[in-house]
Amino acid sequence: MITVENLKIIYNKKTIIYPNIHIKNNEFVGLYGKSGCGKTSLLEALFGLDFQGDLEYDKCTINDVDIKELDSRKYDYISYCPQFSQNAFNPKISVTEHIRLTLKGNGLKYNIDEVTALMERLGLNSNLLNYFPHMLSGGQKQRLILLMAVLKRPKLLVLDEPSSAIDLITLRNMVEFLTSFKGKLTIIMVAHQKVLLEKVADRIIIL
Amino acid sequence: MKSLIKCFMYMTLIIVLSFALPRLIPGSPLFAMAEDISSVGNMTKDALKAFEKYYSPELPLLEQFIKYLRNLFNLDFGYSFYYKMSVIQLIKERVGWTFLLSFSSIVLSSITGIFLGIKSGLKGKESKLLVSVFMSIQAIPTFLLAAIFQITIAYKSKLLPATGAYTVGARFGQSGYILDVIEHMILPLFVLVISQIPPIYLFAKNSTANVKKEQFVKMASYLNINKRDIYFKYILKNITPELLGRLNIQFILAITGSIFVEAVFSYPGLGQLLRSAISYRDYPLLQGILLICCTYGIIVNFIFELIALRNIKRC
Amino acid sequence: MLNSFKQLSKTKKASIIILVVFLLVAIFSKFLMPYSHEDISHSRLLEPSKKHLLGTDEIGHDIFSLLIYGFRITIFTAIISGFFTTLIGTSLAYIAAYYGRSVKMIISEIANLFVVVPEIVMIMFFSSLARPKLIYTIMAIVFFSWPKVYKIALFKIMNYMEKNKVKYTLLIKGNWFDVLKKLLPDILPLMSTFFVLQCNRAVMYESSLSFFGIGDPLKKTWGKLIRAALDYEDLYYDNTFLWYLIPPVLCLILFVISLTFLSSENGED
User: Fold this and answer.
1) B·C CB contacts under 8 A
2) What DSSP letter does each residue of B87-152 carry, written as one string?
């Protein structure tokens, strides 16, 4: 699904050279590397909007479409959860509203049972639906972002450090949750803990 | 409620100030009378008599103040020298025109300004020309703008009437009255709207651009939320608190702008009243207009504070 | 200083050049005026000629001299008003920030009042009461303008004090003078922005006041000149307005726009 050959990213006066990457459909790939080695830059360049750096490559495609030709319609089938989940919520609307808008934008119906079931699997109490973002903890926010990312039925799920604010107990929930999606869609996950990646991913790419 | 207390506090301050300052300013006839210097040279004999009757400078200060307060509560703002009518009567007659002009201008300028501002804010690129033009317009004093338009459009090209709210002799209820009023309103309203759009446009544009940079707006795109929903639920909702604050100021701007525009176009509102009051040193009238304007400002501020509080309470 | 000038945007450069020219005209106005501004011995209502570059008005003044004199008076009024407004506003903000608590509350509430009510009406009311001297006009302007400076200055000063809290708490053991010295490098650029802004406002207020006929009739600012032109009945009859009304209007607009662009932060770049 994703092919990257001879990619070089120039950003903030730093040049980072990436190894060739081929990700097949429905693979679960972990990305691991020391901080500053360019994990986030890679994700931003491939899946983000308005990436400010310069890209040089031989080939760089998602679903055989060159990334330069992709616009915001790529989010029809990609769910990208960047690292700033803490600030990812609109302070003026409730959690329910967030979910409702996400589903609406993707042409899906709001099914309260499906939503609460997913929330339970992530260890989230269903009364959180009425909360506003300032009432949520960091871990709750991260899990809710993951929830919405999955709800919109993507073909590709990209997670940048989805577990940084989560305690070990809830981490188990998340591991089970992610494992349940294995094989059903393509997942790319960046994490600091190699152990976590080893548990869930099919293979790990080290940058 | 805290806001109500603040409101009363302001009103009290204004009343005290409007009582005290004229008596303290050197050159004011009240000051002169208090000091018993006869430098009241610029007033006619009639004016002087009516003045003494209202202000009673011969009474001790405290009694003057009590009399002043009593007058205010009875809405007795005194007697206008020039117009030979009670001030409150005069104000009642004219205030309607002022409100017509200023509220229409607020509605028009706010809608246009906010709409254009948001549109510009959403676009990545800046339209430097538009921003510069708006900043230049904002810099020019309103009365100058009014005078310029009056000269070019009314006097030189004779496209629209130059003065008044209606053609002399026209009466309410007559056919064509409303059209006549509208025709006379176009130019003053136009000037007012032009002078009010720049600040609110620039403000909306900057607010929108700032909100757009926020992480959660980007996230909304990642979640594939509809563009329309992003505009309304994300951007608009988040610029609203700041925008309300700006609108508060716009209301004040509308009144002061209206005063100047009326003065230039001889529109029969408070502005023209103020102009004659100043020309003829009609102090009761001046004071009455001042108190009305300040009260208006305080009430508007109070209303906006209430709205802001409600907005915060909701989430 | 020349380097920092070169770095500014084109419009800011243009604004500074215009303002410097205006300032020079104001300073050297005595030498630039062909006749005294009080001289009414000329024939009335002459059209522009070599002897009278902008003609004469209906009383007999040489309009060009009036215009040049206007440079001096208008700019002088603007600078003085702007200076004192900035000084008072910032000083009070510092006092409020330093002493905090009730002092801050009292000053802030008074300032708030003046922000809430339309200050131009207050200025008009009070300056029309006072004797028609320029000093009273300036005082009225300063008296009702400092709150706006105060509000923003207080906000920024408190921000600065928060940022370097450790540095300042150590110094608060010292007296207010030491804290002020530390704040000064941050405050000065702020004050210069205020100064430009307030000069701008002062000119607007003064010309609006003149338009209403308030102010010192002897100190003929551009506002007064414009008012005189507008009062002249046959202004539009022939082309008198071209040399009577337009020049002061242009000067005023140019001055105000330059000040605006100079103090703008979000304009261009």
Assistant:
1) 128
2) HHHHHHHHHHHHHHHHHHHHHHHHHHHHHHHHHHHHSSS--HHHHHHHHHHHHS-HHHHHHHHIII
